[in-house]
Structures are given as structure tokens and as C-alpha cells.
């Protein structure tokens, strides 16, 4: 019986001297023919707003510029709690909340009226006085706010640790009296807001000691400290007209409008006489939630 082997079998068995009638390349090509090239799928066109920053990103960028007034940050209301929660962080404000007497309210209202009416554009000057709303953007609180930290962005998972830290600090300090002593004009770091405020005289040392303890807690969470030489104040008016937006003209609360010297001469004595307030708690506002921690310890300036 004669065994007939195919060319493919002879190649596989390796018969000596056998030369196939086709090349190996041909066999490979015949066994696995190439697939025709696929057409490239065109991707859909991106929307024109793809490169625009989100509302949260714009809000966080604005907050990062910083405003030296806690009250001003609250009335601005940006970024929103919802947008920051999506980003995993929320706006943090730490401040003292103090109730003014009726006499102090009257002095502050008179001071604001003079400063606003003397400005070239009175409508651009907004009130931050408790219980007063001239413009829808104005605050309507019943208390005076005094910042104890910069406006900060707190990660959501830091919320409880921050509250516990502030509670421990409040347990160490005793309540104390503070007194407003003078008028002052401040602008935020980016010069986008200008404020007319009243600055603390009596009680400065106690406030500074309290702030330094808060700074230590913030440092553990890698948050920035307050200013090295803070000007403890309460803002009573604000405007977006600043030294940066009006380089060729004078902004509000400056010459030829009533200067600090004019306000001091007219209202300074009454401010110092009626300006005593009681600092009895530290307030922490995270997003829209406000927690209050009563000062209940025995420490004062140390």
C-alpha cells in the first residue's frame, strides 16, 4: 500500500530534501486572510461650554480670593452649599456673634447713613447692619459678626473633626467683654470688596489668644491661619467700588467723602461709650449649618 502525503504533511513531518511548490508566506496568507480596514468612527462634537469652568469651580475660585469680612461672605452666598458638596468641600466661617445694644445700633445706623449719603454713588454702598435691609443682597441678621478666621474651604470628611476641635477650644476660654474703639476701612486681598468697619479696642488680647488656638486646629487640617496681625472688626457697610476698580477716582469712605477722621470726630465718642459687646461663644458656619460653642472655661489671654 502506498502512502500519499500532502505537501503540508511533508513540511510538518520534516522530510529531508522536500521542497514545497509554494512559499510559506503564501500558505500563511491563504490560512488567515487580512480583514479589510475598519472605518474610523467620528466622535460627536463637544458642546461649546465644555471648556467653561463649572459653577462650583467659579465659586471656589472666588472664595479663594478671600474677603476679610465674615458678614460680607455670608451675604454674598457663593459658592452654594450644593455645588461645594458635590466637590467634596464646603465654605467654612468662624466668627463671634454679638448682640448690640439699642444705643449702639443707633450710633452705627447714623454712621452708615452719613458714609453712604456722602458717597458719589450711594446705591453702590450696602448695609451690613443688623436688622437693616436696603438692598436684597444686604444681610438681615440681628447680631454683629466678628471674623475669627479667613473664609476657608473645608473637606466634607473634616467636618466632625473641626467641630470637636472648636468645642475643645471653647471649653478652655471664659467669656469676656469687648469694646469697639474706632472706625476703619479695609479691602479684601484681591481688592474686589471694600468695607467700612468698626474695630475692637478692649478685648483685643482675648480675641487674639482665641484665634491663635483656632489657628493651631486649622493647621492640623492643613488650613491657612488668620492674619498675623489681625484687625478684629465688624463690617457695617460694603461696596464693590475699590481702589482697584476706580484707580483714577476715590472709592467710597475716602476723600472727598467723609474720612475716618470725620466719622471719628462725629461718632467716635459715642462708639466707644456704647460700643461694649459680650463675647460668649464661637460660631462655626459650614455650608448653611451653624454650630455655636459657648465659652465655658477659665482661660483669658493664655
Automatic annotation (TrEMBL):
GO terms for cellular component: nucleus. The keyword Nucleotide-binding does not apply. SUPFAM superfamilies: LigT-like. Residues 27-53 are annotated as: Disordered. Pfam families: HVSL (PF09749). One of its GO terms (molecular function) is 3'-5'-RNA exonuclease activity. Keywords: Exonuclease, Hydrolase, Lyase, Nuclease, Nucleus. It comes from the Eukaryota. The keyword Hydrolase applies. GO terms for biological process: U6 snRNA 3'-end processing. InterPro entries: Cyclic_Pdiesterase (IPR009097), Usb1 (IPR027521). This is U6 snRNA phosphodiesterase 1.
